[in-house]
Amino acid sequence: MEEKISCDDGHEFKLLLSCPSGLSPSQVSVVFDEAYDRIPHPDPILEHSISEIWDARVQQSSSLYNGTKFRYGGYTFNVGNDPKQQPHVSLQLGLTDYRTFVGTNLSPMWERYLVQSEDDCIQCQHTSSPLGNGAIVETSDKKILVLQRSNKVGEFPGYFVFPGGHPEPQEVGIISHDGFQELNQCRTINSKVSQEMFDSIVREVVEEIGAPADSLSSPIFIGISRRVLNVRPTAFFVIKCNLQSDEIQQLYSSAQDGFESTQLYAVSMSDLENMASKMPGCHRGGFALYKLTVPGANNS
């Protein structure tokens, strides 16, 4: 399932999971458990640096706050023995927070947190690794929507990205692992988190693009890519919008989170190929996942 791609500018990506046929919400489930939380690093000095880096960042920007995030801890993929049975992915998620993300994945010393292993989850067991999300949005006139990030954002200012962000634990009432030990509670929360995987990407598109939710199709999950630089994982989805690109451009001017980007582009597949050289690795991986869903796209 894993594939590593090298990019000329050093923004490599790794495809952790590829689902070229696309999976609907009924084909994706979640196991939310503290077993998939980050394991503290055995070096106490390295662990202490998390607080030091966070405190320094907060002094630089008082608007930073420490929200909880879902931590990517792996997946299981079940194709099934019955040809009529649909493939199914179960995502394994723990809990982390933005402070630990800044102090591990985004730390100047991020590589010291990695463990030598071919197993991705073991390699990244000491990093926060919050699971991000991204959407390849197709308009009714067969264009794909791409944002240019603001120069004021913390990561990859000025780069091209797909709309996205993170699924949010607080949206489903999760602050910690407390209270979800009983079997029926586990099933309920797993179902809610699974739904949040799909609800959150629709929210991100609405907030960043300005397109109303009722103009968007149900998201289709196509896989997970990981930026090799600071091992940042992102789940990608395909969403169809029943509006034309010029209509979306008008809506974008009043998008709720429009401040995060400076421009919206509606581009063809060949245009997107050219823009990919200025995408962060995780989003380049998202484009690679998308191309796998489009017949003949990798042969052009």
Automatic annotation (TrEMBL):
Its cofactor is Mg(2+). Keywords: Hydrolase, Magnesium, Metal-binding. The keyword Oxidoreductase does not apply. Residues 128-295 form the Nudix hydrolase domain. It comes from the Eukaryota. PROSITE patterns: NUDIX. One of its GO terms (molecular function) is metal ion binding. Gene3D superfamilies: Nucleoside Triphosphate Pyrophosphohydrolase. This is Nudix hydrolase 9.
